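Support reply, case 0932

Customer input (verbatim):
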Amino acid sequence: MSRQKKRKTYNTYTYEDGNTVRRLEAVPGYQEERKIRKEERREADQKRRRRRAARRNRERALKMSAGYVAFLSICVTAVAFISIMYVKLQSDVYFHQQKTEQLEREISDLKMENDSAYKRITTSADLKAVKKQAKKFGMKYPSEKQIIYYTIDNSDYMTQYTN
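Our regenerated output:
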């Protein structure tokens, strides 16, 4: 084998794009700096716009018309009136609940008194003694002639007259 064959040849391919260096590649990080400056300018513009908008809003807020002030005062008055009426109604409801509970307690007490009085009367009255006393005064059971039977036609009520 010859020496020439053993020798490997390496071919290098190069590409040239003109004979000058491009500007972007001249300073490292130029593109990044440019982006940062652009963002800073955009942020500064946004801040200026926000400040102008805030100043305009403040000026607009200071220039309230008489009609708008009247409308707001009417609204505040209406809300205050409605709130006062609501509180008054709530207190009235509470008062009526208290009054109802008091009256219910009174009714309960009166029913208990009535029941106890009824039991006292029924236990104290001796029907045999009453019957005996009635006979003593000449009272007697009614006879057949004194009893009158009524027949009611299909009416709702009956009128009774005494002679």
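We compared this against your earlier run and they match. Two observations from our side: Helices lie at 3-6, 30-62, 66-124, 127-136. The mean pLDDT is 82. Please reopen the case if you see a mismatch on your end.
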